[in-house]
Amino acid sequence: MAYYIGLDVSQKNSAICIVDDKGKVVIEGGALSRPHDIYGWIKNRVEISEVAKVGLEAGNLSSWLYSGLIKDGLPVIVLEAFQAHRFLATQRNKTDKNDARGLAQLVRMGEDFLKLVTVRSQASQEARALLGIRQHLVNQKVDLENHISGILKPFGLLVVRGNVCAEAFRNRVVDVLCVADDRGINVREIIMPSLNLYRSACEQLAILTKRVEDIANDNPVCKRLMTVPGVGPVVSLSFSTAVDYPERFKKSSDVGAYFGLTPRQYQSGETNHIIGISKRGDPMVRRHLVQAATVLLMHNKRWCPLKAWGVKLAKKHGISKARVAVARKLAIVMHRMWINAEDFKWQAVAKEELEGLQLS
Questions:
Q1: Element (H, E) at 26
Q2: What is the band of 172 on the pLDDT scale with cuts at 50, 70, 90?
């Protein structure tokens, strides 16, 4: 007898359902959302050797539970959240018990039907935690800049923005506050707490950025990826930790789809059209790849076939679509470099091709 087990995981408790190879429910119940408790519950009810698959939906606790249950000898798989959600939505009533039962039936269908999630290594998860906190501080920094500038505008006090460092922005705000004092506008006490918070956020952001740079420079894969024009420590570390195991992609072109950079198709009867990119996968990596593509197209002075292709695309379809297309190409190139253990190969571009290709 082969048993298939579905786990519907929540923060405190997990609903568990065991079905046999014919889909009949053997037993249902629950345990605390800890690997040892879940393993003990299963072990007390069926033979571990007869468990064919244990499935749980991808989520915040899935990596921890997966690692713990694998160590205990259970054959665990992590299901893609999108597919699992769509499958479970077919049930009339949404309950933890029904979700566990649905996941057990989904696991029983076999891996040819399932879309599985690869659990990242602990080192990659730690690096992604660092990148996530850094991105949060970047967002806070931008929000504070917008907030401070927005408060001053109604008084006719304009802070000159642009590509300036944090210290320059703070100095400009202080200068504007001096002008406000001269005009009798009492906003200094309102602005200064936010400005002090801005300075603190920038200081912590610099520390985390330095940490990212150190990790990337010590990682041979990241150092190789940084030979790609437009790709720096943040982008290389973000990409490498998201992919983690490059061999899991059969084709390099699959990486673009993995990060949601490929167009979606909608076809029904006579209707058949493209509806933009899917935006599936990790949004942080997708954002970093688009930023790298922007640097390549707009700021990198050295020409290569990838930049020439992207600039031609921008001339024809606009810079927004060109950035996304180049980001997808970058993901493919970086994966192929990783697989082949090769640095980026610069190729000359004929002068005739470069005529009229400058972007303003």
A1: strand 25-32
A2: very high
